[in-house]
Amino acid sequence: MDRVPTPYELPQPVVRPGEHRPVRRLERPVQGRRLGGVCAGLAEHLGLNVRHVRLAFILSCFAGGAGVVAYVFLWALTPQSLVTTQVAGADVVAASRPANESVRNLMIGLALLVVGGMLLAQQHGVNLRLGVLIPLLTVAGGAVLAWSKLDDAERGRWLVGDMGPGGRRAGLVRLGIGIALASIGAVVLATQGRGLAGLWDVGIPALAVLAGAALIAAPWGVRLWGDLRAEQAQRIRETERADIAAHLHDSVLQTLALIQRQSGDPAEVVRLARAQERELRGWLYAGPLGSQASLASAATEVAHEVEDLHGIPIELVVTGDRALDAGGTVLVRALREALLNAVRHGAPPVSVYVEVGSVSVEAFVRDHGPGFDLEDVPQDRLGVRESILGRMSRHGGSATVRRLEHGTEVSLSLPVTATPDAVAQPDTEGTR
Amino acid sequence: MPQSKTPIRLVLVDDHRMFRSGVKAELDESMVIVGEAADVDAAIVVVARTRPDVVLLDVHLPGGNGNGGSDVITGSGGVTAESGELVRFLALSVSDAAEDVIAVIRAGARGYVTKTINAQDLTDAIRRVAEGDAVFSPRLAGFVLDAFGAAAGEVAMIDEELDRLSAREREVMRLIARGYQYKEVAKELFISIKTVETHVSSVLRKLQLSSRHELTAWAVGRHLL
Question: Among the three residues A73, A95, A117, which one is the final residue of a domain in this structure?
Fold first, then answer.
């Protein structure tokens, strides 16, 4: 399978002094910016001194506000750079995070200054044509509000919808207010202050034009939408396929390789195949058994552990389930001991049946070995006497060892209600 | 176990050729394979043509209505073996997913075993199915106990009740789940092997006919380990 190199494996362009400088993509740096980072980005992109660019912008502001318009458009259309770049000639220290705050304050101050200046000018008889200026400013304000939603690297998160519900709602409100402001401004501007009556005169022809345009563009739009959907579905399929391939590569192919290498050792091959089968089954049918704190899953885990330890397959059947409490833990530990006994001293097949009922939990471990009588077991053999029989009886349950015609069966039983407190009686003895 | 005089005529239905050849190599001379098929449609044709005693049926098969082994059983309804008995089906699966197992049993399979079964057990299972009895693996027994609420202590008062197991049936199922062979079950409960087989067949019938709602809900919501 082809591998896509991880980002840090991508070849980095190395710039040597004297060599031709690589052209950078136009983007707004986070560091070294004064307002929106447009000048800094532009300077970086064009290879100019940032001071000169800034000066040019300030000068062009006096040419009928062209600089302002250009700045706003560049700011809205230029993506913010995700990596922090060193900007030539910029004061990096002055422009880190706290600078954002000061820039905001500066903006508010500037806006107030402009408003005050306008009021003063109006009083001294200069006609500022407020009927045009105020709607224009409203449109600009709305646009800034709406577009700023897409700023600050929120672009990606906004599109993916990865934000918390609160942040998302705030963003939507911001966007809504921005759009409303802009539309109101546009309407007022278009109707030249004649109010809603004028809106009809302007609005209906505009709507007719829009409708005509929509009609013409509709088939194209629909096809584009369809293509987009198809492409999305394709990408989802590819992602899924890549996931499955990755999983198979990590699990099944590795195991197959191991099996080929260990083909001389049948026990090891069986153990590997068994473990892989279980893993794959768990992955395919990840069901309610996955919850860790249940008695059934704990018993399953123990059986798998012993199976892996000794390479002897264990046939496990569990019916019913309940939360894993202190009594359940005791039973599972005794079950583990019984299983270890069965795989060590018995013969396969080893069967386990765990029945979780409403009044009691029962577990049966059965092997097909020669079997043994409890009386024959020496007193010092802690495995059976202590870890199984003693442990069960201490916790209000019971355990019996039976010799069958073929093999031995250990039965464990624990009443569900008569479980002593786990804290008062911790189960501390060793596992042998 | 009484040995049949005439060999059991067998059809193998599995879409993995490796598995079919593996089974062929394992079976002894008391059985003869009269046909093989790799998908649902081929299987129905082969079963109708060869009229075997037992069909060894993979649960997952391509073709048909997309229901795998169940489609073969419904498609072969009414086909009789040369002995005059209806053709019997033994389901085989690697999946252990309850909805697959329950579907193929309710479609009419006489038993269910996993593909990891050893050669001797498989031979026994085929013979048992050929004689009209049911074959339950420990896992299927565990599933039955769970689905009928028998593990929680629900027991039928009368044997004919379809939605619950009788006390005896519950005992038999519990012993099978514990890994006991039929003859060991018989010895444990002081009954004959024939009686054990009767109980198992009765449980199979309940599994096929019961409308117990937990059965379907359980099968959908959970998998056999």
Answer: A95
pLDDT at B137: 83
- pLDDT band at residue B161 using 50, 70 and 90 as cut-offs: low
Answer with the residue of higher pLDDT: A409 or A3.
Answer: A409
B139 touching A, CB under 8 A? yes
- Looking from the CA of B15 toward its CB, the CA atoms found within 13 Å total 12
The CATH number of B7-132, from 3.30.565.10, 2.60.40.10, 3.40.50.2300, 3.40.50.620, is 3.40.50.2300
| A372 band by pLDDT with thresholds 50, 70 and 90 | low
CB contact under 8 A, A315 and B141: no
Interface test with B, best of A317, A339, A412 (most B CBs within 10 A): A317
Domain, as residue range, for A309? 287-415
SS3 content of chain B, % helix, strand, coil (to 5): 45, 15, 40
- Could you tell me if B36 and B27 are in contact, meaning their C-beta atoms sit under 8 angstroms apart? no
pLDDT at A331 (0 to 100): 85
Q: How confident is the model at residue B95 (pLDDT cuts 50, 70, 90)?
A: low
| CB-based contact, B225 to chain A, within 8 Å | yes
Token representation of residue B49 = 């043509």
Verify whether the Cβ–Cβ distance A349 to B222 is below 8 Å: no
CB contact under 8 A, B179 and A366: yes
Question: Quick one: closest CA in A to B224, which residue?
Answer: A317
Q: What letter represents residue A288's amino acid?
A: P
Who has greater pLDDT, A119 or A8?
Answer: A119
Task: Supply the pLDDT for residue A244.
Answer: 81
- What are the tens digits of pLDDT across the range A17-26? 444 555 566 7
Using a cut of 0.80, tell me whether the model's pTM lies above it: no
Total domains present in chain A? 2
Which candidate, A36, A351, A39, places its Cα nearest to that of B185? A351
Contacts of A224 (CB under 8 A, 6+ apart): none
The DSSP bridge partners found for residue B68 are none
Interface size, chain A vs chain B, as Cβ–Cβ contacts under 8 Å? 68
User: For residue A79, which of A155, A10, A135, A19 has the smallest C-alpha distance?
Assistant: A155
Which residue from A386, A395, A398, A396 is spatially nearest to A430, judged by alpha carbons?
Answer: A386
Q: Do A317 and B97 touch (CB under 8 A)?
A: no
What are the structural domain ranges in chain B?
7-132, 136-225
Determine how β-strand B88-93 pairs with β-strand B54-58: parallel
Q: Between residues B160 and B28, which one has the greater pLDDT?
A: B28
Q: How many Å apart are CA B54 and CA B57, to the nearest integer?
A: 9
Q: Which of A287, A315, A319 sits opposite B223 (nearest CB)?
A: A287
DSSP state of A367: -
What pLDDT is stored for residue B159 in this prediction?
Answer: 55
Which pLDDT belongs to residue A93?
Answer: 42
Question: Chain-wide mean pLDDT for chain B?
Answer: 79
Mean pLDDT, residues A33-40: 77
ipTM of this predicted complex?
0.77
What is the architecture of the domain spanning B136-225? Orthogonal Bundle (1.10)
Distance from CA of B215 to the nearest CA of A (A): 14
Give residue A284's pLDDT: 74
Beta bridge partners of A402: A409
Which residue in the set B142, B152, B174 is minimally distant from A318, CB to CB? Answer: B142
B153:A405 CB<8 A? no
- Is residue A364 a part of any domain in this protein? yes
